Amino acid sequence: VLSEEVSNQLKSRGYGSHFIKRKGVPGYDMSDALRVLHDQIQGFSGWLTKVEAAHDFSNMLTKLDAKNQPNEYAWATQYVHDMLENQTKTDRFVDAAKSVMFMNWLGGNIKNLAVNLTQNIILGTPTLGRHVGLGRANAQWLKAIKDLRIAVTDKGVIENPRLTEQERGFLADMIAEGWGRGQLMDELRGRMSGPAGKFWNKATQVMGWPMQASEQFNRLTLGLAAFRAAMAGQIYNEGTLTSLEMTAGQKFSYDTAKRFAEYVVNDAHFQYSKGNKPQFARGSLGGKALSAAYTFRTFSHNLLSAWRYMLGSGDKDAMKAFAASIMGTIALGGLGAIPIYQTLAALIRQLFGEDPLESGLRKKIPAPMRDLVMYGAPSALGINIGGSLGMELPVLDRARINKDFKDQLGETLGNILGPPYALVSQYMDAIDAMRSGNTARAVESASPAFIKNILSAHRLATEGQTTVSGKPIAVPGEKEARKLTAGEAIAKGLGFQPLSSTKAFEMHRTLSEVKSYRDEKQEEWANKYVQAKRAGDLQTATAIKEEARQWNREAVLKGRPDLKVDLHAAIAARRKPAQPMRQMKGMAKELREAYGM
Fold first, then answer.
1. Measuring CA to CA, which residue among 262, 254, 263 is closest to residue 231?
2. What's the whole-number mean pLDDT along residues 63-69?
3. 146 & 182 share domain
4. Within a 10 A sphere around the Cβ of 2, how many other Cβ atoms?
5. What are the pLDDT digits (tens) for 251-282?
6. 70 is in which domain, residue-wise?
């Protein structure tokens, strides 16, 4: 009896609970037969996979010497524990949180479909090109697109007349084995449990279809291109040939070509699962909680890892692939999409008061080419996707180094946390709008992105750009609130960033950051001057005034009058104590009397 109870306890932790003998329990659900069958097969598959994995893990752990390799052994045992652990309440909570964040920002957003479709240009063909050459990689990929078109489902692949029987079987294998499916979407979308969760999960599936379909299209077209290249004997990279035990010009067998294609697809589109997460995001209670935020940075992390490998592998073909990847990023997002480009530009403005990477560079580019160079090919359509393609440092990209760090601490932590903080901030904006009496803006702020984009597009096209409180925001130098054209409003409603919005934001940001540089210098000299005068150090005080005078002279000579400081006004403000506003002077007098001061 005891052994049976122990066995039942172990079974109850997963799919094995179906094998526990019970009395008086029907054991079936007639409400949704298709869902029950799906869950039954999925549960059994997962349970069987764990049984096989447990055996493999055990064999691998026996090969590690815990005494001589304590760190490796500790990491490996923790990894095995994490992989075999059944879903906990924390996991279910994290899944629910991911699901809410997905629906709020990514669900139903058409822009995400377009951005997803750039992945093969940015990393897919460069990855394949490392093995077969960039020219062949692009040719095979374009042919795969032509032949596959939009047939990305099981039925579409099987019935595609443009593919050979062998190619149809290969693509069917890709889908069945998972590496041809939208793994990123499954990771981002999360899942809710319970009766209500069934309807929510269906809604997220429908709203995530644009991203799901585009990711699956990317994987299948790249996989087909890699498979065809291998079957045609086009692989020439020595390292690849050695690892697959092949020779240059040799045509691959079906199994070897499939293995090569899986390697290329996983390198370019990554594997998304608990097993591929860093340890901090899967083990401890805190790590699992952080994983909800980390999930939305997974793609960037994987892309950086791929670039790091290309640069550090010592393989000249990998270096060419890296160059092609960066060029693809620039072609689609402009120079601003280069990793940390915007961060560097902002730091230069705040440290030196100069803007060589943005406005400075624009001035040197012929006017007809400026938008193409700075924002990429989509700028011809009046949109900018560089913000979605670029990668900036989470803290430094918005840091104001000329301001007190403690005043920025909240936003800094928010940038690190990412989506959870942004969700809270979104609802705080809605509350601020309600307090300002702007109900329509409150609804817009609190809405999911696919609704917010439509409401925002209508507001920007009719009323123009304003703050939450209703204050107009104009292009620097103009007097009226900036408005979107009809075409820009349509693009905004679909989730795209109008090019004019990007330009207006960059102008405001540049002016603000250069001003902060000038203000910091002025405040620094004013503080030093007042301290020198208090200490009776007239020589230092005079030197500070002379330094400020020379600064202003050089600013004029360089054609930068915007950097001139008003040291006299700053010193006067520094010396003068803060006073209550005129209408509060009576209250200030009453308070002095009440406190006896």
1. 254
2. 88
3. yes
4. 6
5. 999 999 999 999 999 999 998 877 778 777 77
6. 4-21+35-86
